[in-house]
Amino acid sequence: MSRPPSSSSRYAACKAIGRFVHCQLRRPTAGIWALFTTLVFAITTLSLTVSMTHSVRDALRQSAEQTIGGDISLRLFHRPPTDAELGFLETFGIVGVSAEQRVMIHPKPDQPGILSELKAVDRTYPLFGNVKLSRPGPVSAILANDDDDHAGGDKNLPGAIVDQDFLEQSGLSIGDVIYLGDQQYRIRAGLLAEPERQFRLFSLGPRIIVSLDDYRKNALLSSDKQVYWYSRLKRSQADPRPNSQVIADIEARFPESGWRIVNAADGIPGIERIGEFATAFVSLIGIAIFAISMSAIANAVRTDLNGRQAQFALMRAVGVRPGQLGITIAGLVGGIAVVALIVSAFITQLLGGMIAPIFAGNLGITLSPSVHHWTDITGFVACFVALLSIGPIHAACAVKPALLFRHQTDKTPRGAGAQHSGAWLTRAAILTSAIAVIWFAIRLIGPGWFSGILIAVLVLCLSGFIGVGFLVRKVSALAAHRCAGSPSLKLALRDIARPTSPTVTVAASFGLAVTCLFAVIVFGALAGHHLRSVLPTETPDLVFFDLPPDQQATFRTAALAVPSVEAIEQMPFVHGRVTHLNGKPVILDQVPRRYHWFIRGDRGLSWARHPNATLQKAELVAGDWWPGDSINAHLVSLDADIAHALGLGLGDSISVNILGQRHDVKIANLRKIDWSRLGLDFPMVLSPMQPPFAHGVITTIDLVPSSASRNTAAAISGLADQFPAVPMIRVSDVMDRLGNLFDRVHGVLLLLTVLATVGALLVIVTGLIALRQDGAANLAMLRALGIRPGQIIRTGALETGIVVAASGVLGTVAGTSVAVLAASRIGSFDVAETAVMMAPLAAGAVALIGIIGFGGGWVLQQASLPAQSGWRRG
């Protein structure tokens, strides 16, 4: 009957464990260095990605008021808010009104205009945040009619604040005059930063800010122009009601206003979903890199513990019990993990300080790793290391003292775990660690169904490549018995098939890394090719909008008179907001999130007697087009995917608020719209009406393909002279901006996947170290049997190359398949053209995988031979 240990004996045991850990860390072995290095890499990568994504997510939440411009934002299209509406809003706090419009601004009356995004603001602007200007002073004072500082020229001109890009494009400077519609403005300051555009990734032109009082007098501000009117509300701090209650009161007071209302408490419209998906995906990449690196950690732990079998046997021989030995080994692994966490925290802070200015300058986001994040990271690391270490530690505790007195080639005896009385406790610990890992992973990525899907996909991919590893091991075992090749090949196949070989971990980690890498590379190549080569041929060259209806025929005649113009399409254009489906108010929560854009915003719509060329390209899924004489028939042609998401079919009704008036229409047909083609198409096209709504006309022009740049210049110069106030978009410029934005996003993803590949290479290196150590005892025997050093080196190259090649090729196929599937959602691809484009990439991938596998195995085997026990030269 054993007595319970006293407190003094427990202290002595803890002291002995601490002394053992300290001694081992003072003189680390190759296994400890591999474990430490891999942990530092994995933890640093995970910390940076989590800190980055959580900082972005927090910034999106905290700066919603600045980006939206108020606690509540109410947007109208085509018309300003009425005095009654503004009076009611002012009962809740301070109201700021602004108008936004895309206009052509001319540096000189006789010079071509520059497409710009105009904002006309009142004296309350900005309600939240700060506008950074090139000169000090409040915005209202800079925009005021005060030209005392200009002795000559036109005096008493209203002021304008312009983006730096406008100054570069126009060649103007502060103090010069610009021409907007029938007004002149003097440039008073340069715009450096604007709170509402903090998270705006794309714009069609530079920002221009003017006074709303002055701009109300401009001829461009008419009811048929595409003008967004914003009423932004800064609520009183004394009002305890939530924003949602205020919004309900506003909608109840003005049910037919047609406002698009945004609550800052719900985040930034559109951006919050993009931010949620993007940050969750980047966090998942960090966790995937950590998971890949964990395979290297598992190899390193097994390598180190197997190398200490004799030491553990000696400890058992002098009376150390299995439980005490397990605590000692766990203390060693935990000590390494603690040191790695401390070093990783220092490196993360150092790299974060280097990256922070980039985020602050480009996005206005401050990277700030919090204690909360580090607590989750520490818990995730501790549980993951425990999950991978419990099995090897349990096996090491089962070592017998008899190992000191006889040679055992099997260092992990069969049934050792089953014979141990605490086997059930080990299984429970593994299960608990696995559950804790998943729990911490969800906390790091963020709660929600999307995070669960991402983790499930990661687990599924890892499981698939683990299966590939077992398959490679099984096939190698069968091939080793039937292979009639060289001795080196037979030895390599037998080494791969050994249960103690790192075949599974190398195949899983490298296969997953290659899948991620090639998914990003191939998708980037396909999407980039579509964006730069395919899409420009399927889109118009020029787009003119806000053309007055009474100038529509004149513009068409003038455009067709230009020799370089090949085709022209024109359609009326107005905005409307969907308010009811089949007579019932729309409930946003009942609409799939991917179609929230259709419901909660002002949608562009048009009407037509007959479908134009672009509309005819869309496949009719159901119904038919209306006759040309269907005046005031109140019919609509709707996108089929939207109809399916909303549960609508032929004959169902949709209520659209247009210019504050409810317009009820019935679905006449459903079209399958190809949104990858930027033609003149709309999700909703109405039947003709008389009289029509106050509207503008949007026009697209296709130019003769030859000498595109020269033709574009000729068409622009001719039409700009006749219609100087009509805003125009060069589609090629938009494509260039989209291409640059895509390149930046693709570069970030590529960097993350390269880090994942580095983690996989660490797995290969640690796996080879483990493999060489396991086979060290056989080297002397092989040399005694006449196996030459060159054959041994070839064996190492073959066993590494076979595993890497098998998992790498499958990873390449899987990654390419994922990329092609994702890219097919963007647009169709020509199979022959895609094959020609992908052939060099595939050849390079096979060559690189071969170099990494066979070449890396050759180098590592050759370098490791002189240090192996039992090795002799000659």
Keywords:
single chain, 874 residues, alpha+beta, six-stranded mixed β-barrel, 21 strands
Structure description:
It is built from 26 helices and 21 strands. Helix 2 runs antiparallel to helix 23, helix 9 packs parallel to helix 23 and helix 17 crosses helix 25. About 2% of the residues have low confidence. The strands form two sheets. Strands 2-3-8-5-7-6 form a six-stranded mixed beta barrel. A six-stranded mixed β-barrel has the order 12-14-19-16-18-17. Helix content is 54%, strand content 16%. It starts with 6 loop residues before the first helix and ends in a 10-residue tail after the last helix. The chain is α+β, with helices and mostly antiparallel strands and 874 residues long. A hairpin with a 2-residue loop joins strand 12 and strand 13.
Compute the separation of the termini in Å.
Answer: 59 Å
Overall geometric form: elongated
The biggest sheet, with number of strands, parallel, antiparallel or mixed sense and barrel status, is: 6 strands, mixed, barrel
Assembly level: single chain
Mean pLDDT: 75
Helical stretch tally: 26
Beta-strand percentage range: 15-25%
Radius of gyration: 34 Å
Helix content: 40-55%
Q: What would you call the structural class?
A: alpha+beta
How many strands?
21
Uncertain ranges = 408-421
Strand order of the largest sheet: 2-3-8-5-7-6
